Amino acid sequence: MTEMVLLPEVNRSEFGANKSGFSRYVNSTHLSYSSSVSVLEEGRSFLLGLFLVFKTTVMLMIIMAALFGNLLVIVSVMRHRKLRVITNYFVVSLALADMLVAIWAMCFNFSVEVTGGRWVFGYFMCDVWNSLDVYFSTASILHLCCISVDRYYAIVQPLDYPLIMTNGRLALMLAVVWCSPAVVSFLPIFMEWYTTEEHLDFRRKNPQVCSFTVNRPYSVISSSVSFWVPGMVMIFMYYRIYVEADRQERMLYRSKVAAALLNKHLQINGISAGLTSLRQSVDADLAEVKTDPGTSKMKRERKAARTLGIIVSAFLACWLPFFLWYVISTLCGTTYCYSPPSVVTLVFWVGYFNSALNPLIYAYFNREFRAAFKKTLQSCCQFASRLTCVRLWRPRRDHVNYSNASSDIHMNNHLVTTGATLRLPPTGATSFDPRLISNVSEGEIINLQTQSEAVI
């Protein structure tokens, strides 16, 4: 659309019959308007470039945090025996899924954002990218669903937990978690069930565009399997866990209050017969309650449940905007529910950010993970410093030059054979240690030997 240029009102009588003067005035006005437009375009280009740099930086930080943070989780659990429990095997598997999200989903999305929406990997890889994105996102939430079920049995049924969560059931749950997402990712996408015929024709004619446009049945089924149903299961499980943890906390508080009231009652009534032994037994019972392995185990289970509850809440907060946009935009269509590209990018990367958020939650809310992270990072720093020292020390060693190889051999042999004679008498002189004069030349050794013989 052509822009309309509005010139200021001019009194043409001022120019009179001089038409050239009026034309020069119009040309100068056009030039000033063009210069102002060019300044605005330069400012707009600068802001767009600045926004692109900011967006690229944030995306790279999310990718690196997801890669190295989840790698730290895996290494810490494998290196520390204390963390090798059934729940943390689910956590390790979740960290692996988040790492694969960063490698396959985030990196491809980052390439699209950097190239201005252009897909450079071909038609087939577009289907691969969409399939892996759906697959690993679904695997992440199914892992969290399994973790919530595991925590439920560990806290609500602690006595039956070792019989319920066996190694065989653990392997079966992990196999289901890793295999079932293929039903809503690879199968419908490569069979072309997920989208419309119009979109398939558009993709064949424009292979440089990779957009994930789905039909209504697929959007409802895939979102239910990937988010809504597992999310409701997790919310229900953690609600039951919260109720049970609160009940156990109240029972523990009541037992402590009852023991304190009993002790106070004995003091008020002045019961002397057996008071000392009874008080000692009460104190022993309280100490046993405080140091009971079952009580400490119950506290650890509640702390782990709280940490994993925060993880689930963060997951729902990160992925809920995406799935709301995903379902609403598909059901009402792009005609009535058009979303700008910036909104689509935002909801995608807010969901991706969850893959980088889980290690931060572990480090902040779980003391055992925090200590394991610290030890792992210290070991990595020590290994890196050791490698650096070796690289810096070896060249210096190679550049050491001796004046005479035979003199060096003679020096070592002479120090070994006459080490006992290279001592001054204890009248005030300093004793010589052969280890301290390894850089002495041959002439200095002879002089030193002459001096020692003269003293003897």
Descriptive notes:
- It is a single chain.
- This protein is mostly helical and 456 residues long.
- The protein has 2 domains: 59-388, Rhodopsin 7-helix transmembrane proteins (Rhopdopsin 7-helix transmembrane proteins, Up-down Bundle), CATH 1.20.1070; 406-455, no CATH class.
- Helices cover 78% and strands 0% of the residues.
- It is built from 14 helices and no strands.
- It has helices at residues 19-79, 86-114, 123-156, 161-164, 167-179, 186-190, 197-205, 216-269, 275-291, 293-336, 341-365, 367-398, 405-417, 442-455.
- It is globular and about 100 Å long.
- It is a multi-pass membrane protein.
- Residues 69-362 form the G-protein coupled receptors family 1 profile domain.
- GO terms for molecular function: octopamine receptor activity.
- Belongs to the G-protein coupled receptor 1 family.
- InterPro entries: GPCR_Rhodpsn, GPCR_Rhodpsn_7TM.
Helix content: over 70%
* Biggest sheet architecture: none
If you consult CATH, what is the topology of the largest domain? Rhopdopsin 7-helix transmembrane proteins
Give the full name of the CATH homologous superfamily of the largest domain. Answer: Rhodopsin 7-helix transmembrane proteins
Shape descriptor reads: globular
Overall mean pLDDT stands at 75
Tally the helices: what do you get?
14
Subcellular location: Cell membrane
Pfam families: 7tm_1
Keywords: Cell membrane, G-protein coupled receptor, Glycoprotein, Membrane, Receptor, Transducer, Transmembrane, Transmembrane helix
Domain G-protein coupled receptors family 1 profile: 69-362
